[in-house]
């Protein structure tokens, strides 16, 4: 069995939905449909988590085999206005820990964005930090996990922030488009 670990926040946890509708569960279903039966998805999503919370939590997951690691943190950092340098350092330390414990693991970084309505340069710097980390570490990259979902009322829960079941299908598609290149039958 090969493990795919998703470390993320409420988006990964599937906030407001049954676990089976969260995008990591949809990835597990897609793996089965496509004949990748040796893969098991582990969902380490925690609502409200930040990059620093993920850095604190990642150790407890590293004791088990990890073949593919999907890092999907940062949205809450952006919402809270945490300095981009701090977010970047936390995400880098998570990547470093995964590489140290599982040097053969393939890593995917899920990019996040915040609306450009945020004053100053923060939104641009925030968007850029994910791309820079992916390039620096030579890891696979999903440019924007919420592409096509943000601001679409019909794809989000009434809070307008968290994707509904239909929205999670798009998150799964964006992830699958990158993940499928790493799979072995």
From TrEMBL:
Lineage: Bacteria, Pseudomonadati, Bacteroidota, Cytophagia, Cytophagales
Source superkingdom: Bacteria
Protein's name in the database: Arylesterase
SGNH hydrolase-type esterase domain residues: 6-170
CDD domains named among the record's database cross-references: Lysophospholipase_L1_like
GO-annotated molecular function: phosphatidylcholine lysophospholipase activity
InterPro entries: Ester_Hydrolysis_Enzymes (IPR051532), SGNH_hydro (IPR013830), SGNH_hydro_sf (IPR036514)
Annotated source species: Pontibacter cellulosilyticus
Ranges in coiled-coil conformation: none
């Amino acid at each position: 069995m090969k493990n795919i670990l998703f470390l993320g926040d409420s988006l990964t946890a599937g906030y407001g939905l049954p676990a089976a509708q969260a995008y990591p569960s949809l990835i597990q279903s897609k793996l089965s449909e496509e004949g990748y039966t040796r893969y098991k998805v582990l969902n380490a999503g925690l609502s409200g988590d930040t990059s620093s919370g993920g850095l604190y939590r990642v150790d407890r997951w590293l004791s088990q085999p990890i073949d593919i690691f999907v890092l999907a943190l940062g949205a809450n950092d952006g919402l809270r206005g945490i300095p981009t340098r701090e977010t970047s350092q936390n995400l880098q330390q998570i990547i470093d820990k995964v590489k140290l414990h599982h040097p053969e693991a393939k890593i995917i970084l899920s990019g996040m964005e915040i609306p450009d309505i945020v004053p100053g340069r923060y939104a641009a710097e925030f968007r850029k930090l994910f791309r820079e980390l992916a390039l620096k570490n030579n890891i696979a990259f999903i440019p924007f996990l919420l592409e096509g979902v943000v601001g679409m009322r019909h794809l989000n829960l009434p809070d307008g922030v968290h994707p509904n079941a239909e929205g999670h299908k798009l998150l799964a598609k964006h992830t699958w488009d990158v993940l499928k290149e790493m799979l072995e039958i």
